[in-house]
Design a protein that fits this description.
single chain, 52 residues, alpha+beta, Arc Repressor Mutant, subunit A, two-stranded antiparallel sheet, 2 helices, 2 strands, globular
């Protein structure tokens, strides 16, 4: 749980990458359609490879 947090005040309580408003769901959906970690980092500069 070093990288994921759940806060009812952020993104309706969905699990997010700690310190961001990027949901774990979004990351998994993007990876499922073939995006690479580098694509995700380009699209969301607050992400780090360890977050993904």
């Amino acid at each position: 749980m070093d990288y994921i947090e759940i806060n009812s005040k952020i993104m309706f309580g969905k699990p997010t990458i700690k310190g961001t408003r990027i949901t774990v769901e979004l990351i998994l959906e993007e990876l499922a359609v073939g995006k690479t970690p580098d694509n995700l980092i380009s699209a969301h500069p607050n992400l780090k490879k360890d977050d993904i």
